[in-house]
Amino acid sequence: MGYFTNQIGYPQDLLASRSIIKRKNYALIPPEGLVRNVIPGFENCDVTILATPKLGATFVDYLVTLHDGGRNQQGFGGENVETFVYVIDGKVTASADSTDYPLTSGGYLYCPAGVTLRLENTNGGQASQLFLYKRTYQRIKGYEAHVVSDNVKNLEKIHYEGMSDVTLQDLLPKELGFDMNMHILSFKPGASHGYVETHVQEHGAYVLSGAGVYNLDNEWIPVKKGDYIFMGAYVPQAGYAVGKDEFSYIYSKDCNRDVDC
Ligand code: UGY
Ligand code: MN
Asked: Where is the Cupin type-2 domain (predicted)?
């Protein structure tokens, strides 16, 4: 059952999918094929696991729908695990240990390793939708991460690499205590990356609006709102915005650490 699109019963046509899975390289996961994953601690929630180490990621991404009474009070994260939650739609209270952060659409909370993330739907009986992330934190001596919460509507939009119709927002501080960041990249219709990137960092990207044609490992692939894209280390990547709406996605990126040899 494709629960996201409420598709049940017999197919109307030949079975088909836009999913592309290239383990340890890249993946496109559209909403139509998503299934529910039961995870202890999540009550009245539909949880879908997206990128994982099985796909080649060093992080785990999830889509979570909190229904009426939806919550996780058991706590998410752990001693060495940092977590991040972004509200795609709705209203929730996210807590970092005992401190509550009421979040609406565009709101987010980062919890460093050792701080427990809790979630509660507060959307007056309506569902809320979240993008959730976790990763093993890479400690370095002399630096620490800290709790961060804000809403993207308060963040500066920086012209991206000399282009005024492509903007970047950094959701977390550029401090060495942080081994990752979350960003939102937004392209006006017709805008694109300035070049095809090839870099060691990985991304897990959720498309928030619009549509694009995206280059993943030199294949041009149509993508649109609701799609999830995993980009592994070194995968060539770039996109054009197509259609009438701004093409925008939230994505994680590891940073501020050397690599082991
Ligand atoms: O920050 C980034 O690496 C970003 N520009 N990558 C991407 O959009 N695929
Ligand atoms: Mn990139």
From this structure: 185-248
**CB distance 188 to ligand 1 below 6 Å:** no
Ligand 1: does its nearest atom lie under 6 Å from the Cβ of 170? no
48 CA from centroid of ligand 2 (Å): 24
Q: Are 230 and 50 in contact (CB under 8 A)?
A: yes
Mean pLDDT score of the chain: 97
Fold designation for 20-152? Jelly Rolls (2.60.120)
Domain boundaries defined on the chain: 20-152, 154-254
CA distances 106 to 16, 18, 139, 141, 162, Å, are 33, 27, 28, 33, 25
Q: Is 153 helix (H, G, I), strand (E, B) or coil?
A: helix
- Structure confidence at residue 2 (pLDDT): 66
Q: How many CB atoms lie within 10 A of CB 235?
A: 22
Which CA distances in Å does 80 have to 14, 75, 86, 145, 205? Answer: 46, 14, 20, 12, 23
pTM of the model: 0.98
Q: Is the pLDDT of residue 7 over 90?
A: no
Do the two domains 20-152 and 154-254 of this chain adopt the same fold?
Answer: yes
Q: How many distinct helices (H) and strands (E) make up the chain?
A: 0, 20
| Portion of the chain with pLDDT greater than 90, in percent | 96
Q: Express each pLDDT in 65-93 by its tens digit.
A: 999 999 999 999 989 999 999 999 999 99
SS3 60: strand
CATH class of the 154-254 domain in this structure: mainly beta
